[in-house]
Amino acid sequence: MTRPTMRISGATIGAPDPGALAQFYSDLLGWPSEIEKNWAQVRSPGGDGLSTLNFEIEPDYVRPTWPSRPGEQQIMTHLDIAVDDLAAAVAWAEELGAVPADHQPQSDVRVMLDPAGHPFCLFTND
Known about the structure:
Elements: E1 10-15, H1 18-29, E2 33-35, E3 39-43, E4 52-57, E5 79-82, H2 86-95, E6 99-100, E7 109-113, E8 119-123
């Protein structure tokens, strides 16, 4: 059997407040958002690569820990975001409500926590 053509077009992230988290990523990335009661989406204006981030309600959401620890809520996924200027990107993310993680394993990557506690990494392609 021949493998059919497939591509990932989006990723879905659980959150206690999907609209607030979608607004954070909309502001962070400069992507437009669509927000409904229990679901929200931000969409890449260029449609290149991963084109949507979707957010859905998780009423029993528990913030993950970074780095992972036994017996604690584990991280299910994280976003890697390429930036031109790491310091400026960190400052922008912080202005929008993200915080740097206490543990930073690489000097050229900044692990940040979004307002719901999901980790995301900012990095340059140097």
